[in-house]
């Protein structure tokens, strides 16, 4: 359930981040969403744990969750947002559907997680449905190689980020763990924005009410609620299974984008959605 709710949250965040990114650029969106995410997560842990920052985290937690934040929040999202500008979000999400397979394979080697034949079948069926829904006619990826590699980098970042999160989190609070990841991701973007001399653009975005509203809503459903749910999910099931359910975003996004961006819903998308849901349901079949 946490994995499925993560997919819903990421669907909403993707819509609002895309809206803001078209207006002010992906780099400004990335650094501001992480800054807001740190604040929202801190306020949450202040009420639930009595502390704004994760002062009780061990060095082990900080190291592995920090690396996870750099790989997932910084590199992974940097590559993904860049791929949007080259091959579009629809094709990028197709490539991102490879994340569950990457996660399952890495989890097998890195965490000694053993996936049953039923789980492997569920992953294959679910990912197949996603590919059918978002690939378009012929299921061919006729796009620039550079854009494809950026999207593949986004998928790898998400997969490795989840794996490292599970290793670094253990039984530690999922919300506090998310804040640690966000802190490292944020300061990575601070270094990048400083190196590229883009602070003026970031400050202009802060003064843009329309963009900040979209970024704020996207942050609530993305780096705040969504990522916290994703970490809770990997705490309670295999990372390959959790990642597969989270990868249903391209399916969940069909109806909202049809209303918001006037996109036509095709038979291929509906068929893909049915196959993906069937694949996900395999995990719950006893």
Topology, please?
Elements: H1 2-24, H2 26-48, H3 59-96, H4 99-110, H5 117-135, H6 145-169, H7 174-196, H8 199-206, H9 209-236, H10 239-246, H11 249-252, H12 254-260, H13 267-282
Written account of the structure:
Pfam families: EamA. It comes from Proteiniphilum saccharofermentans. InterPro entries: EamA_dom (IPR000620), EmrE-like (IPR037185). This is Putative membrane protein. Residues 3-133, 146-284 form the EamA domain. The structure is a single chain. The longest helix has 38 residues, at 59-96. 82% of the residues lie in helices and 0% in strands. The radius of gyration is 18 Å and the shape is globular. The protein starts with a helix and ends with a helix. Helix 3 (59-96) packs across helix 7. The chain has one domain (2-282). It is mainly α and 286 residues long. The mean pLDDT is 83. It has helices at 2-24, 26-48, 59-96, 99-110, 117-135, 145-169, 174-196, 199-206, 209-236, 239-246, 249-252, 254-260, 267-282. It contains 13 helices and no strands.
> How many strands in all?
0
Helix content: over 70%
SSE sequence, one letter per element: HHHHHHHHHHHHH
On the 0-100 scale, what is the average pLDDT? 83
Number of domains: 1
Name the assembly state: single chain
Low-confidence stretches: none
Helices, by number, come to 13
Q: Nearest-angstrom radius of gyration?
A: 18 Å
Percent of sequence in beta strands: under 5%
Keywords:
globular; 13 helices; single chain; mainly alpha; 0% strand; membrane; 286 residues
């Amino acid at each position: 359930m946490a994995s499925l709710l993560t997919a819903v949250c990421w669907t909403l965040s993707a819509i609002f981040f895309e809206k803001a990114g078209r207006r002010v650029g992906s780099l400004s969106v990335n650094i501001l969403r992480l800054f807001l995410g740190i604040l929202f997560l801190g306020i949450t842990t202040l009420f639930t744990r009595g502390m704004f920052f994760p002062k009780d985290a061990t060095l082990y937690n900080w190291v592995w969750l920090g690396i996870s934040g750099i790989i997932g929040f910084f590199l992974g999202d940097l590559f993904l947002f860049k791929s949007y500008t080259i091959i579009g979000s629809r094709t990028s999400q197709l490539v991102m559907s490879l994340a569950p397979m990457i996660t399952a394979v890495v989890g097998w080697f890195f965490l000694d997680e053993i996936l049953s034949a039923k789980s492997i079948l569920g992953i294959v069926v679910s990912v197949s449905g996603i590919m059918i829904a978002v690939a378009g006619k012929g299921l061919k990826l006729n796009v620039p190689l550079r854009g494809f590699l950026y999207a593949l980098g986004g998928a790898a970042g998400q997969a490795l980020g989840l794996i490292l999160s599970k290793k670094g989190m253990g039984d530690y609070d999922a919300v506090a763990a998310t804040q640690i990841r966000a802190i490292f991701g944020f300061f990575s973007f601070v270094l990048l924005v400083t190196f590229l001399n883009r602070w003026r653009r970031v400050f202009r975005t802060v003064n843009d009410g329309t963009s900040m509203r979209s970024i704020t809503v996207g942050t609530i459903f993305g780096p705040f609620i969504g990522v916290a749910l994703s970490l809770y999910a990997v705490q309670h099931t295999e990372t390959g299974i959790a990642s597969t359910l989270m990868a249903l975003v391209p399916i969940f996004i069909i109806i909202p984008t049809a209303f918001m961006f006037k996109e036509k819903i095709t038979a291929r998308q509906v068929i893909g959605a049915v196959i993906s849901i069937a694949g996900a349901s395999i995990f719950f079949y006893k």
